[in-house]
Amino acid sequence: MNLVVGHQNTKSLFVRAKENNRIAHCYLLHGKESIGKILFAMETGRMLRCTNKSNYNNCNCQSCSQYNNGGELQTTLIRQENLSIRTVKEEINPNAQLAVAHNNNSWNIIIIENIHLANNETANAMLKTLEEPGERTVIFLTTSSLSDVLPTIISRSTVVPMQPLTHDNVNEIYKRIDQDSNSDSQPLKQKLRDELYDGTIGAQKIDANIYFQTCEIVDNILNGKPEGVQEMLNMLWKLDDKLTFRHICTATYKKCLDNYYKNMEYTNIITFADHILEILKRCDYNINLETVKLDFLSKLATLTPTPTQTGTH
Fold it and tell me: Radius of gyration (Cα) for the chain, nearest Å?
């Protein structure tokens, strides 16, 4: 299975670069938020180290197994909240000069998130490293706003555009998450959670924990468990954050559609999903949170099980 969903052209670019021994020292990955740029950089590092030439597919070679099990493979990830001149001087610059063994699958990978948020002082402190990192060191910079990246950063990088995820890509991510929810594959689950993205209702990254909690509650409701409605009531009752409410609606809508297309014997499930979609549309405006919460809860009454013949949807 290929962990990185979509981005076929970008994958091909890096596979060709590896095959032709033309890996650049610094790449600037740019594209919309929540399309998996960090995950892509991590998986590219794994691909470079893979001894079986599996590219971006699953592999059980010693290097990939060590990576999948959380082993140390000289990868440094700097999240945007930690990007500072101190981090550059004490972590990024020293790590970029680490000695790397001279064999085909040894690479030192450094990933820096949202480089456009770096101030001038921080950016200037890493310019020499971006231009001349240590041998077999690759630096990945990510951004969702290329126009805000300093020209001095861009000039020292190979700029790689990444396209938005298609609806099919998004559905594949959700499918994998649903399948993985009942497995013990924690590394895969965590990576998919980290990159959870919803492209069916706008480019909105939703909170993974809220998604899974909501899906579990909706499952209880659809399975006729009496505690389901009470769980939803408890979750919404003290909620005072509009964005979190939108996340709950998004997860509910997606879960209802998933179950409808699996031919569940509830004729009212699509009606309920339509109600939630209307509430979601209202969330784009200045809503009264208490009013839409009550509207959401009142619509739960339409989700009563009504048996019908399987396969008639």
Answer: 23
Q: Which two tokens stand for residue 224?
A: 């006729």
Q: Which two tokens stand for residue 252?
A: 């509910």
Digit-coded pLDDT (tens) for 108-149: 899 999 999 999 999 999 999 999 998 889 999 999 889 899
CA distances from 287 to 135, 149, 189, 199 (A): 55, 35, 34, 22
Work out whether strand 137-143 and strand 26-30 pair parallel, antiparallel, or are unpaired. Answer: parallel
The Cα-based distances of 39 to 6, 103, 250 in angstroms read: 12, 25, 23
Angle formed by the axes of helices 289-299 and 269-282, to 10°? 170
d(CA 162, CA 2): 17
What single string gives the DSSP state of each residue in the chain? -BSS-S-HHHHHHHHHHHHTT---SEEEEE-STTS-HHHHHHHHHHHHH-SS--TTB---SHHHHHHHTT---SEEEE-GGG-SHHHIIIIIHHHHT----SSTT--EEEEES-GGG--HHHHHHTHHHHHSPPTTEEEEEEES-GGGS-HHHHTTSEEEE-PPPPHHHHHHHHHHHHHHTTS--HHHHHHHHHT--B-BTBSB---HHHHHHHHHHHHHHHTT-THHHHHHHHHHHT---HHHHHHHHHHHHHHHHHHHHTT-S-TTHHHHHHHHHHHHHHTTS---HHHHHHHHHHHGGGG------TT--
Q: What is the mean pLDDT of residues 190-206?
A: 50
Specify the higher pLDDT residue, 157 or 62.
157
Question: In angstroms, rounded to a whole number, what is the distance separating the alpha carbons of residues 114 and 104?
Answer: 30
> Could you please report the per-residue DSSP string of 62-83?
HHHHHHHTT---SEEEE-GGG-
121 class by beta-carbon count within 10 Å (0-12 exposed, 13-18 middle, 19+ buried)? exposed
